[in-house]
Write a structure and sequence with these properties.
Layout (H helix, E strand, L loop, with lengths): L7 H22 L12 H20 L2 E3 H4 L13 H17 L2 E4 L6 H11 L4 E3 L8 E4 H4 L3 H17 L3 H7 L15 H13 L1 E17 L2 E14 L5 E14 L5 E7 L6
Parallel strand pairs: 2-4
Antiparallel strand pairs: 1-3, 5-6, 6-7, 7-8
Helix pairs in contact: 1-2, 4-5, 7-8
């Protein structure tokens, strides 16, 4: 009986060919693949590998040119000549033009239409892109990569930390926490292993965190440091007894700028967390 369009022998042959193609792509282009067995049917995986090869071949040979050149040297109206009520529609027109040429521009935080228009029609036009034309492929630009929003990054780092904590996501917490410095809520310096042990002890005390909700009510920035003050609550079931408990109040998350972008947590206090 045929399976996924190939009999078992055909699947084995196709899988061997796919493994050989992965090795070739790794050696030729430095491509990396999961070591785990693929769950894709062999013929679908073959098509996927062919698409990767096509992309790598085009990328290797592709020249670079400015966005302005790619668009055919368009002209844009000066910002001051565009009526406020027409600015959004003019932005939409330009974003659609960029999309047709394989370029997507977005922002992760709130940006005024004036700043976004100014960025796209001036700075972005001078950026270099690869002259690659593959159906469905887009080259993406994020406004904040050019104009970082420190307050957004700090608020986001605090939110991610709490989500990882209440989700018992240890790998995420390793990313959230500073690698170089940390203090407990009383200001006592702790080693990385000590704070990890404290968090593990907290998480293991509860069979499940059933709900959490915190809102950032204040975020202050000073040099390389940031502090988020959050109000909220969390509920959980105790390990063993499954007794329901809840805590509410103010949560404080102090952070320092990460060498990898964004912020790392260096201290926090949380209702119900004893350190």
């Amino acid at each position: 009986m045929a399976e996924s369009g190939l009999d078992k022998e055909g699947q084995s042959i196709r899988k061997a060919l796919n493994d050989a193609k992965k090795l070739e792509l790794t050696q030729k282009y430095g491509a990396k693949f999961w070591e785990y067995p693929s769950e894709l049917p062999p013929e679908i995986e073959s098509q996927w590998l062919n698409s990767i090869e096509e992309f790598e071949r085009n990328f290797e040979a592709a020249p670079q040119l400015s966005v302005r050149t790619l668009l055919g040297f368009p002209s844009f109206k000066p910002l001051e000549e565009i009526p406020t009520e027409l600015l959004e529609s003019e932005l939409d027109r330009i974003l659609e033009m960029l999309f047709r040429h394989g370029i997507v521009v977005d922002c992760v935080a709130e940006v005024t239409a004036e700043d976004f228009y100014r960025f796209i029609t001036t700075e972005l036009m001078n950026e270099e892109v690869d002259d690659i034309h593959i159906e469905g492929m887009k080259q993406c630009f994020i406004y904040e990569d050019f104009h970082p929003n420190d307050e957004y990054d700090a608020r986001n780092a605090a939110d991610n930390f709490l989500s990882d904590l209440f989700g018992k996501f240890e790998e995420g917490l390793l990313i959230d926490l500073s690698r170089d410095e940390f203090c407990n809520s009383k200001g006592v310096h702790l080693g990385r292993e000590e704070i990890q042990a404290s968090i593990r002890n907290f998480c293991s005390s509860y069979a499940a965190f059933t709900h959490h909700a915190f809102e950032c009510v204040k975020c202050t920035l000073e040099g390389e440091s940031a502090e988020a003050t959050m109000q909220g609550m969390w509920t959980a079931l105790k390990t063993g007894s499954l007794e329901a408990v809840s805590f509410e109040g103010e949560c404080m998350v102090k952070m320092t700028r990460s060498p990898y972008g964004g912020y790392d947590v260096i201290q926090f206090s949380l209702p119900g967390f004893e350190d």
